Amino acid sequence: MNHDNTPIAAIATPPGRGGIGVVRASGKDLGSLMQALCGKPLQPRHATYLPFLAADGTAIDQGLAIYFKAPHSYTGEDVLELHGHGGPVVMQMLLGRCLEAGADIGLRLAEPGEFTQRAFLNDKLDLAQAEAVADLIEASTEAAAKSASASLSGVFSRAIHTLVDKVIHLRMLVEATLDFPEEEIDFLEKSDARGQLERIQADLEQVFSEASQGALLREGLNVVLAGQPNVGKSSLLNALAGAEVAIVTPIAGTTRDKVTETIQVEGIPLNIIDTAGIRDAGDEVERIGIERTWGEVLKADVIVHLLDASRGPTRADEEIVQRFPANVPVLRVWNKIDLSGHKPAVDRAEEAIHIYLSATERRGVDMLRAELLRAAGWQQTAESRFIARERHLLALKAAREHLALAAQHASVDNQTSDQALDLFAEELRIAQERLSSITGEFTPDDLLGVIFSRFCIGK
Ligand code: GDP
């Protein structure tokens, strides 16, 4: 990746007003910037209270300045942090002054994620850790925040490195044997290569299962809530959210005409897409909105079709059911059992799972929670030690496939084939490369660009 080490600066704290606001600069040599803003050299890693100086020597603000000398900083470069008062105008003035004073060293505004990108390029963080920084900032549940923090401290990366080390060890054995063809036949027996490979495969499954749980914590589960007016959709949302606060979040890339609400169930974010707008289209604009909503339904992880148990299905319900995509599981939830006289229950019928509950009396709601988590593949007993992303799961799946191919080449039937060991070695090499892409050793530049551009400015 293009390693641009022009000095950069940005406001590191969120926009708006707050007690403290931080302007941060990073670059190869920030001595002149420090002199201009702080009036003197600072002792590294010590907080100094001083006036931040304008060009004419007057004070823009008073606050703490901290200087981190390379390589002992977040980015691995010299870093200067100015902690002033958190007002938008003060912060802009301070940033403007930095850019002015830093003009002679080429100081420019930082791109989104550029501080963290430099930390990655300077080996302060690997890629999975850098992603965890963004995940920690964006975490919408406590469980997600805890797992992101664990990933940031390297728990996930260490699990990947352990796997990679084992693959490398096995590769070394194979490569050594390839140099002595007469020993090839015995190699697989003597070195217990098959046993080693099996253990690596088992370890990978363990990491994959933990990463899947971690990815669920990050991405959440997309639930479509369908049902006619007055069947109790809002009441059900409240009942599901329980004591926990319902957070209304606009999800990136979605349109305003769709209501998405995120609630937590055991720390898993459930992104609930309300299909209230799915009924009749009034005009063209509405029709487009409705089509978009259907697009979301196709991507849902699970559909909750809410019905009134005291009334039974209506014709409008039948029409909606017709449009449900065949590959998305449907939970048919019969609400208002307090009126219909049903008991709270789960009924696993062939075409769908039926759940009987009362949203307002909060009976049977736990059963729905459990079914939603089950549909998401959440294992309550499994502990999620780290956060993960779809990108990581794809890499793990690819590694899993290549290990399986390696196992085929090492199978007893193949043992006498001349090429078997070569192919075995080659599959191990690819598996290793896929695993290493998680921590960023083999990651194309354009992908890195995409990952870091999704960060906020100043991070
Ligand atoms: P929505 O239009 O689908 O969002 O439905 P609401 O949640 O606004 O509920 C419509 C009406 O049904 C309200 O008067 C609720 O109090 C009532 N309701 C919802 N759930 C239940 C339930 O489990 N039992 C009874 N008896 N009434 C319910």
Topology:
Elements: E1 8-11, E2 18-27, H1 31-38, E3 48-53, E4 59-68, E5 78-86, H2 88-101, E6 108-109, H3 114-121, H4 127-138, H5 142-152, H6 155-178, H7 184-190, H8 193-219, E7 221-226, H9 233-241, E8 247-248, E9 259-265, E10 268-274, H10 284-299, E11 302-308, H11 315-323, E12 330-335, H12 337-340, E13 345-348, E14 353-356, H13 365-376, H14 390-409, H15 420-439, H16 445-453
Parallel strand pairs: 1-6, 7-10, 7-11, 11-12, 12-14
Antiparallel strand pairs: 1-2, 2-5, 3-4, 4-5, 8-9, 9-10, 13-14
Helix pairs in contact: 4-5, 6-8, 6-15, 8-14, 14-15
The structure holds guanosine-5'-diphosphate.
Molecular structure report:
This protein is of the alpha/beta class and 459 residues long. The chain has three domains: 8-124, Probable tRNA modification gtpase trme, domain 1 (Gyrase A, domain 2, 2-Layer Sandwich); 142-215 and 389-439, Four Helix Bundle (Hemerythrin (Met), subunit A), CATH 1.20.120; 220-376, P-loop containing nucleotide triphosphate hydrolases (Rossmann fold). Helices cover 46% and strands 18% of the residues. Strands 8-9-10-7-11-12-14-13 form an eight-stranded mixed β-sheet, with helices on both faces. Strands 3-4-5-2-1-6 form a six-stranded mixed β-sheet, covered by helices on one side. Helix 6 runs antiparallel to helix 15 (420-439). The longest helix is centred in the middle third of the chain and has 27 residues, at 193-219. The protein is flat and about 80 Å long. The relative contact order is 0.13. It binds guanosine-5'-diphosphate.
